[in-house]
Amino acid sequence: MHRTYTPPSTIPGISRLAKSLRQQNGIKHTQALEEAAKVAGFQSFKHAKRALATSVDTDTFASLYLTVFWHDRDATPFSGRCTALVKLPKLTVDFLGSLRTRGYTMLGGFQLECQDHLRAARDATSFESAKSRVMNAVRELQFSSATGLRPMRKASQIRRHGILQSLPGNDHLSLWVDQVTGDGLALDEPYEPRLTSKKRAERLEWLASNGLAEIAPNWSGLYAPGRAVPYIVSQNAELILRIAAVVKGLGEPPSIDWASHSGPYHTEFISPQRLASGKRYRPRPQRSFGKRLGALPYGGGPGWASEWRPAETMSVRDHMKLGAVLRGLAWSSVSGRIHSKLISTLSRLDDWSFSEHPNESSDTLSDLYYGSERRDCSSMEKQLEALAQARRLVAACYNECRPRQDLLAVFDKVEADVMGRAEKGQGALVTAHRQQ
């Protein structure tokens, strides 16, 4: 069972911790107070009293905890929980809520567990890697807060500013959106040898032909400070100059005490705000085991939940038939939204086939949903016949369960799209089909 750890956030709490440290370690009370204050994130007990006794520090700065779990078979111990406390301007921490959206992982792999706690979804490969991920997140957080830029994550934004992804010679490219103007901006951070003089000339020509400008500010960057060279690229020249001026003034990330809040792998860190809220702490998703409501889990691990498939299996032959049908539908006259759903469904069924037939050759299984054969779906009637075949295959081979329901729901959406598109140009044909 997981244990929990919460650092003290008040003077009485620091005093109670000091008493415990004194008894455990056989040290003097004054020394125990100093150690307890450091555990709470302060430089000393005097600093803790001064900060907690006035509202200036808490009004200006806020505590943010960042947690990364790690595994390293070559280390002793071979696993752990790296939790770090940083004191950042309050506005920097407050804006984290605006980045929280359903299913979105921010800052290179962190999720907002509570307003004062960022927790990485996936494990790091070592303690040093965990520390590096924390520092990268802190730098990105400072950059985003100071500049007013937000990571570009909406598909519509990426399509609108897609030209930025074609930047010649780019490396470690990240895309951002300005909250004021809505303009896109690329932060390109190649290692200097990557851009030779010839490539540099080609890049400048490409920028000019596409109405883009760039600048290399006097700044160490986000990806690999001191080793990579950051370039700011955008169609908005004023935005480039403003961001360049801001990043020049960015200070170094705060120093971090890596030991005080870290702990064993199977312990959970409960932040002060999570504790004060009275709301239950939600552990990271993990792999599931065993049959549940007619479905079996597959995949999953620390930080990501298992997917589910029907407990009964579909034969390789029927998978091949279903794959040809769905590929034919995906590349027929359907909307872009439905095309994306069908591509996602093909990927899901590909995973199911590998889980259902672990002893079959990978070459055979790969062709089931990524082969070249496609059913002819060149007309509305052929599309509807293909959907009927897909439904028959799924209903005959898979037992009733939630994954099967979700699969059939996709077919319903495809049919609605086909009928809706046909109504615009083939009204009589649609009416005849509905009367059948």
Question: What topology emerges from the helices and strands here?
Answer:
Elements: E1 3-5, H1 11-25, H2 29-39, H3 45-53, H4 55-60, E2 61-71, E3 79-89, H5 90-94, H6 96-99, E4 110-114, E5 117-120, H7 127-147, E6 149-151, H8 155-160, E7 174-178, E8 184-188, H9 197-209, E9 213-215, E10 231-234, H10 237-248, E11 267-269, H11 272-277, E12 295-298, E13 307-310, H12 316-330, H13 336-356, H14 362-370, H15 380-397, H16 402-425, H17 427-435
Parallel strand pairs: 1-11, 2-5
Antiparallel strand pairs: 2-3, 4-5, 6-7, 7-8, 8-10, 9-10, 12-13
Provide a compact summary of the structure.
The chain contains 17 helices and 13 strands. By secondary structure, the chain is α+β, with helices and mostly antiparallel strands.
Structure write-up:
There is one protein chain. With 436 residues, the protein is an alpha+beta fold. The chain has helices at residues 11-25, 29-39, 45-53, 55-60, 90-94, 96-99, 127-147, 155-160, 197-209, 237-248, 272-277, 316-330, 336-356, 362-370, 380-397, 402-425, 427-435, and strands at residues 3-5, 61-71, 79-89, 110-114, 117-120, 149-151, 174-178, 184-188, 213-215, 231-234, 267-269, 295-298, 307-310.
